[in-house]
Design goal:
Blueprint: H1 4-34, H2 38-61, H3 64-86, H4 94-101, H5 107-121, H6 133-166, H7 176-193, E1 197-204, H8 207-214, H9 216-233, E2 239-244, E3 247-253, H10 258-272, E4 283-289, H11 296-312, E5 318-320
Parallel strand pairs: 4-5
Antiparallel strand pairs: 1-3, 1-4, 2-3
Helix pairs in contact: 1-2, 1-3, 2-3, 3-4, 3-5, 4-6, 5-6, 8-9, 9-10
Length: 323
């Protein structure tokens, strides 16, 4: 779920651009054709067809990052071509293109593309016999810088919103919303590539006693410590989620020896996770491996059933669903 909001935002911008290009540019295809400016009409037509095709590809494949980059370069190249073909009558199209670039790619990338366009505009023939080159470049720069500041702030706010949407506020682990999205993606990858995935539900043993004896503030610190210890023992692309209360979910792809990994993690937690007076806090594991036909519900149920057996088996142990 890491980039889901950004992808949805980019897809919205691309879809809007597709609508605007059809409604705003298509009439000029006919206007310029009937005015006898066939080259400009062809360029406009290529712009419309190119944008619509790329937007359609993005909607179908969800590859919004790549398509946004292609579209950004495409429309900047296209607006330069149309000004080159149509002269000063089309120079105002440069402004909306410069602004819209910032909504398709990262602000610093958009700024680089815009600078290339501005430098190229300096060499436009005949245009600056009518308008002032200095005024044109200054206004372009103002539009670019202003939009850059706005886009940068929007990107930061989007990252903050995504963090609030996917990260547990107390522990810093991913939350249940992120798990729902990630588990669907993991199942799709596993089915397509036959990647071996492991899902484990962790439950802190006798956690209520920790809260009762030391207070909820200490209990919260124990939860944070568990996340810190576990995160340090897994890989960057592995995922650790707070499932609710003192239950957590660990989802890992491609673990060669699952039992050894869980044993080592359990040992590390038992060694490092302590109460204020130095007593061990242990964890029970219920582990389920992905098998063909697994669904999100069945995967979680298999792990939960294994966790129940681990609790019944005396806690501080790991039970695998295929045991």
């Amino acid at each position: 779920m890491q980039n889901e909001l950004q992808e949805k935002f980019r897809l919205s911008v691309l879809s809007l651009l597709g609508v605007v290009s059809v409604l705003g540019i298509t009439p000029f295809v006919f206007i310029r054709y009937f005015q006898g400016n066939v080259l400009a009409a062809i360029i406009d037509l290529i712009l419309v067809l190119g944008i619509v095709t790329l937007v359609g590809y993005a909607v179908r494949t969800k590859k919004t990052r790549v398509v946004s980059w292609i579209v950004a370069v495409f429309i900047n190249t296209g607006v330069y071509a149309i000004v080159l073909a149509n002269g000063v009558d089309s120079v105002l199209w440069v402004y909306p293109v410069i602004a819209s670039t910032f909504f398709m790619v990262k602000p610093i990338e958009a700024l680089g593309i815009n600078i290339c366009l501005m430098v190229a505009c300096v060499f436009l023939p005949n245009v600056f016999d009518v308008i002032s080159l200095v005024s044109f470049l200054v206004t372009l720069l103002m539009v670019s810088v202003t939009t850059y500041v706005y886009a940068s702030r929007s990107e930061k706010q989007l990252r903050l919103l995504e963090s609030l949407n996917t990260v547990d506020e107390l522990t810093g682990a991913f939350n249940r919303r992120a798990l729902t999205s990630d588990i669907a993606q993991a199942l799709a990858i596993a089915e397509r590539k036959k990647t071996p995935y492991m899902l484990a539900i962790l439950d802190l043993d006798h956690f209520k006693m920790v809260n009762d004896k030391y207070g909820h503030a200490v209990g919260d610190e124990v939860l944070k410590d568990l996340v810190a210890i576990t995160t340090a023992k897994i890989r960057k692309y592995d995922r650790f989620y707070r499932f609710g209360g003192e239950e957590f979910v660990l989802m890992l792809p491609d673990i060669p020896n699952q039992q050894a990994f869980i044993h080592n993690l359990s040992t590390a937690i038992k060694k490092e996770l302590k109460t204020p007076d130095g007593k061990e806090v242990t964890v029970s594991f219920g582990v389920a491996s992905w098998v063909p036909g697994t669904t999100a519900d069945s995967w979680l149920k298999n792990a939960d059933d294994a966790l129940y057996r681990a609790k019944a088996n005396g806690r501080d142990c790991a039970i695998f669903s295929d045991d």
